[in-house]
Amino acid sequence: MKVKVIFIFCLLFLVFGNCFADYAAIQDQAQAGPVLLSQKSPGAKISSPYGEVTEKEKVAFAVASGVAAIFMLFFALAIYIYSAICLQFIAKKTNTTPAWLSWIPIANIFLMCKIANVSFWWLLILFAAWIPVIGAIILAVFFGYLWYKIALVLKKPGWVGALCVLPLVNLVIMGYFAFSSEQ
């Protein structure tokens, strides 16, 4: 779930990341009318509410935004691949089929319900994500309960599974569940 949120933020950053870099140019164009970039001198300064911004600074900011967006995209993809591998190993440990569902978004939650021996009707809770603040709390409790049940199926302490609600800790716990020997 966290991977999907990170991926959405990366996409939003890719789409809206350059809006701030173009803010000064939009303000300048609104005051002076249409101006071609070729009519400006290379070192021309553009006034903005944040001070003077040169064309070089705008280009540097746009390049830095693009590099950061690409880095975040690859980081989110790496976390998604790691999560899918861990869930697939957990499914194989518990003899749950089909383990390849771990690679498909939403279907991986179906697989988690199957591993945890929880009714699939619990997936309807995912619709609570559309409720602004309460939805996030409900989803955190839902995934904490799912990982709690998965921990019990793997004969691990349930509280360890419930810790999967915490960011970054969930990656460590998923690896612990997937790659540790059974008790």
Which helices and strands occur, and which strands form pairs?
Elements: H1 2-16, H2 23-32, E1 45-48, E2 51-54, H3 55-93, H4 107-115, H5 132-153, H6 158-162, H7 169-179
Antiparallel strand pairs: 1-2
Helix pairs in contact: 1-3, 3-4, 3-7
Summary, kept brief:
With 183 residues, the protein is mainly α. It has seven helices and two strands, in the order H-H-E-E-H-H-H-H-H. Helix 1 runs antiparallel to helix 3 and helix 3 packs parallel to helix 7.
How would you describe this structure to a colleague?
The chain is mostly helical and 183 residues long. It is elongated, with a radius of gyration of 23 Å. The chain has one domain. The two termini are 28 Å apart. A hairpin with a 2-residue loop joins strand 1 (45-48) and strand 2. The protein has seven helices and two strands; from the N terminus they run ααββααααα. The chain has a two-stranded antiparallel ribbon. Helix 3 (55-93) packs parallel to helix 7.
Any idea how many domains? 1
End-to-end distance:
28 Å
Question: What is the tally of helical segments?
Answer: 7
Report the biggest beta sheet as strand number plus sense, adding barrel if it closes.
Answer: 2 strands, antiparallel
Radius of gyration: 23 Å
Low-confidence stretches: 35-39
Q: Bin the strand percentage.
A: under 5%
What is the percent of helical residues? Answer: 55-70%
Mean pLDDT comes to 80
